[in-house]
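ok so for the tutorial part 2 we go from a plain amino acid sequence to predicted structure tokens. step 1 is just haveing the sequence, like this:
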Amino acid sequence: MKKLIDMEEKMRISDWIIEKNNQFLVLNKIPGIPVQKDRTNDLSLLSLAQIYSKCTLFPVHRIDRPTSGLVLFAKTKGAIKNLNAQLTKRTIEKSYLAVVKNKPESKNGKLIHFLRKNGKTNKSMVCEKADKGAQEAILEYKLIDSIDNYHLLEIKLITGRHHQIRAQLGHLNNPIRGDVKYGFKRSNKDRSIHLHAWKMSFNHPVTGKKINLEAPIPDESIWNAFSVLEKK
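step 2 — the prediction. this is what the tokens look like for a chain of 232 residues:
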């Protein structure tokens, strides 16, 4: 039975592969799966990826469970060391797409806050100053499209904090569609949120060559309504 389950998981995860080689694996995560094991003990993306790869993988970063998009795993200790160094130096560039209800006052801008994580509620709260335990959170956003009821933001993360995009947009009374934790009125039926880890660029951990990756947008009615995201 275990072998049959493993085969099904391999077939499933093979559809999510964006890039793979001897140094790293990049997947387009679907909403609802945790990147790593959490308190629910549900099967994680890491577990599925290791079944597929038949080797130990090292998560370079994480995205939230209800979020979709790019997740990068290193395959070797040398690769994880190099990629972690790139994270620290902020040379790994990550951009997201977020669907919001309210149109921002400015078409583009930079948000700078301080975030404090509450482990009991698994939520990050925005502080206006560097209180004890709070970390600086910086992102840049750009309004790239609008439809009748929603607006599409492209977001570039400068820092990578717990629930950063969700918390900062929620603080501005502009929560992401479906994100009831940060102020949206209704959840999505599948409990996803309209936040997608869209693009990523980094240097290959061995060759140094620039790697530019993009995750396909979820095939869903709201995402599909934005003309700027029309599939090529």
